[in-house]
Amino acid sequence: xxxxxxxxxxxxxxxxxxxxxxxxxxxxxxxxxxxxxxxxxxxxxxxxxxxxxxxxxxxxxxxxxxxxxxxxxxxxxxxxxxxxxxxxxxxxxxxxxxxxxxxxxxxxxxxxxxxxxxxxxxxxxxxxxxxxx
Length: 133
Hints:
Elements: E1 2-12, H1 15-21, E2 24-28, E3 31-38, E4 41-49, H2 51-54, H3 60-63, H4 66-72, H5 75-89, E5 92-106, E6 112-127, E7 130-131
Antiparallel strand pairs: 1-4, 1-5, 2-3, 3-4, 5-6, 6-7
C-alpha cells in the first residue's frame, strides 16, 4: 500500500482578482504555496519549505519530499493559511489536508485494480475571514 499526502485548496474570487493573482507563489511562515488559475477559481497547493527552514540540515531541501511536508504541516497552520487567503482576497477560501491510501481493490472479473481504498481529510473553509461551519 502507498500513502499519498497532500495539502490543497481553492479561492473563489471575482474575475479581476483571479486575473491579477493567478500563477504565483507566496510564503506563509516557512511554507511555500503555489497559486494557479483553474477555471473560475484559484487553486492553492503546498509546494515546499523555504531555504531558511532547511539551512541547519545539510541537503534537507532536496531530501525532504513534498509528501513528508504535507504530512507534517499542522492542521492549525492549514487553518491559518485558509483564513489568511480569505481575508487577503476578501472572498471564500477552502483548504484541506489529508491522505489517500492506494492498494489492490477486487474487481468483478477476479482481477484487481490499484486504486484509492481509504482516505482521510481535514477540511476548513472561511468566507471573508469568517469561519464557515
